[in-house]
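Q: Here's a chain of 175 amino acids. Please give me its 3D structure as tokens.
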Amino acid sequence: MNKLEKNQLIDDLTEKLKNSDVVYLADVSAMTVEKSNRLRGLCFRQNISLQVVKNTLLRKAMERVEEKDFSGLYDVLKGNTSIMLSDTGNAPAKLIKDFRKKEEKPILKGAYVQEAIFVGEDKLDALASLKSKNELIGDVIALLQSPAKNVVGALQSGKTTLAGLIKALEERSEN
């Protein structure tokens, strides 16, 4: 690869990093072609971009992105590195966990999720349990609807309670 091709690759990676708030770094080395193709297929179906990259080129691309601080991931840029980009913060982590039920790899090296840095395989469970933007919106809507539902429920149950109270008073006065 000549210098011009390297610069073009760095520019492409820089653009991808600028446009993504979810960046996972994983080790997929020593995977068979069959397993690698299966992983790529799963990534494609879940709208996750998977690309094997050279560590030095990725680091240069990360350094060029001024809007984001990837410096916490520089130490994991050793050995085989693949970059996974997604719109959903927990999607790559869930994919890795599901894939690892049958396989040893990929191994999570680190992740950048909406300005937070996660380093190491031990962070995989925490990343997988992150809620997506749509899940958080759903939770907020449910919380906002909850008080209104309680008021409506109380008003509706009040009819039967009031009617029962009046009936009990009538029966008491008859006796």
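Q: Can you summarize the key feature?
A: The chain has two domains: 3-130, 131-175.
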